[in-house]
């Protein structure tokens, strides 16, 4: 083993939160990651264009056991602060729907920006580097790391854990943060996949590829976005959002005509297209394959002229309150985030530091704070990383 190296801050994880913390922690920061490249989840996000924040960010857009914990960090580092940084680096961006901000070009621009800022702050990033062991000492932390078969001992006054959750294991997710938390006596709340497709074995395979705007809801707020049928079940933004509030055995409710105009349109068709079959007219407003499948379970006898107001209202009522019980989710394999994590009861909301272990900080996805789909989780990474980094720089 090489000679012991003394540094101020050891950051575990070269992702969004880890790099952001290193940017603000001051000099003598070492960031390690077992991946070949930094910011791998940034690189694949937003279809390769990185949905780097959301202008509608608010406390209500996050889940966690403590609905107030994240307010402090989010208030001190806002989407506009990150947007200023993006513009400082000349990265072109645009807004899509619902406050979502994306790069015009590639997501790797955000990674390059973070790397440049971290290095300018004096931080070193060591990739393909593994944490072998970590221990607490009177003066801080002792770590053994390994790179290219060589081990090195690190002594650090501060330890920042930013290794993410369990989602997308093919990207290297391991749940390391939870093991470190438990090693140091911090509690970890139940973890489960979030922002994940819901499965309905063999039920919707014939509808695979069909998409439409809906309003979807589990045990939480309703989300009005797109739904996508897959050969395994249901996906699309509306379903991913609702999935974070869904629990096994519970139902989800889907409004297939969320604009509220379907009943009026069918009544008009009764006058103008009275000789047409109900499903023929319905297919003018909903995907034809979906209407065919719906008709198998919900018979639509007669033509439009035969339909009373009550019949039309009943049909629209069923379409607008479709109740389904998923078999499960696709799991961490495709989940965009991990729900739950390091208990916020154990952390300072201002510094992200463990209350019982001075110098130990947990940030980003590994903490029990999970955002909605649409750039909210990146904003949490920036805000929590900023909170920990600035606290370290100020010696707090």
Please give a handful of descriptors for the protein shown:
396 residues; 7-stranded mixed beta sheet; 12 helices; alpha+beta; 7-stranded antiparallel beta sheet; 29% helix
| Main sheet specs | 7 strands, mixed
End-to-end separation? 32 Å
Determine the mean pLDDT: 96
Q: Class by helix and strand content?
A: alpha+beta
- The portion of residues assigned to helices is 25-40%
List low-pLDDT spans. Answer: none
Q: What is the overall number of helices?
A: 12
Instruction: Work out the radius of gyration.
Output: 25 Å
Give your account of this protein's structure:
The chain is of the alpha+beta class. It is 29% helix and 26% strand. Strands 1, 2, 7, 8, 9, 10 and 20 form a seven-stranded mixed β-sheet that branches. Strands 17-16-13-14-15-12-18 form a seven-stranded antiparallel β-sheet. Strands 3-6-5 form a three-stranded antiparallel β-sheet. Helix 1 links the parallel strand 1 and strand 2. It is elongated, with a radius of gyration of 25 Å. The model has no long low-confidence stretch (mean pLDDT 96).
